[in-house]
Amino acid sequence: AEDYIRRRAIRHLEKGRIAIFAAGTGNPFFTTDSAAALRAIEVGAELLLKATKVDGIYEADPKKVPEARRYEQLGYGEVIARNLQVMDTAAFALCRDHNLPIRIYDMMQPGALMRILRGEPLGTLVHGA
After folding, report:
1. What's the structural domain count of the chain?
2. What CATH number corresponds to the domain at position 61?
3. If 107 and its partner were Cys, which of 26, 51, 60, 95 is the partner (CB 3.0–4.6 Å)?
């Protein structure tokens, strides 16, 4: 592990290494979601992966509304307009403004990350449409 330095992180990525960004920015009012969006944009990531406790974005809280429908895809504007709170609005706005898609998936599902990296469409994809 090492401190985050943008050019060093990009150099690791250029060498085919994997960079994992953890924690926040150290600035008040920025959540870890916003930090993840910021770092992904800074290094030119193609996709932001948001691991969470649910398997995507639902029209309502699936714990309170068992019949709630899970979205396969949503536009940034829809997420913000419908106030679908899986990730903070500032992070969504950063991703929207930089056209960075977000895949939201269940971190507790065994093998989920590897399946996404292989191209399987798990969870919900938030993008510019």
Report:
1. 1
2. 3.40.1160.10
3. 51
